[in-house]
Automatic annotation (TrEMBL):
Family, similarity comment: Belongs to the plant self-incompatibility (S1) protein family.
Name of the molecule in the record: S-protein homolog
Compartments reported by the entry: Secreted
InterPro entries tied to this protein: Self-incomp_S1 (IPR010264)
Keyword DNA-binding: no
Lineage: Eukaryota, Viridiplantae, Streptophyta, Embryophyta, Tracheophyta
Keywords: Secreted, Self-incompatibility, Signal
Length: 146
């Protein structure tokens, strides 16, 4: 009987340690079990007194509106959805100018393309990513302002 209680107590302790370690791991870093983590950063490079206003969202997450002054940024990360795929949209406003675009779309990116940088500039929206770094240190222009 004593061995049974000891074994049962040991199992409870191991289970408690496992749950505690998972909680610590989860709180210290995002854990994408089946897929990979994607990071997106938006940087305002517009030297102007008017700030850049952004609003980004997916069908599951609304990241809200953010106002970025010159050389400030906003970033977020998410776990790519295994079977449904992920897609994030963004609206950028700068004065009377506006641009709506896909900030991330699973069909265009793979696991090696996990870090994305979007740059708002006076002449448009530029992009660089971990997998497709900036050419000669310069991000690639993707969109003009409307």
């Amino acid at each position: 009987m004593r061995n049974h209680i000891t074994h049962f107590t040991m199992m409870k302790i191991l289970l408690l340690l496992l749950v505690t370690s998972l909680n610590i791991f989860e709180s210290s870093a995002r854990s994408c079990l089946i897929t990979y983590e994607v990071r997106i950063q938006i940087l305002n490079e517009i030297e102007d007194s008017q700030p850049l206003t952004i609003h980004c969202w997916s069908k599951d997450d609304n990241l809200g509106y953010h106002t970025l002054k010159y050389i400030s940024y906003y970033e977020w990360s998410f776990c790519e959805q295994a079977f449904k795929g992920s897609r994030f949209f963004c609206d950028f406003w700068w004065g009377s100018k506006h641009k709506f675009f896909d900030a991330f779309r699973s069909e265009k990116h793979g696991p090696s393309d996990w870090q994305h940088y979007w740059f708002a500039r006076k002449d448009g929206i530029y992009h660089s990513s971990f997998n497709k770094p900036a050419q000669n240190g310069t991000p690639i222009k993707f969109y003009d302002w409307e």
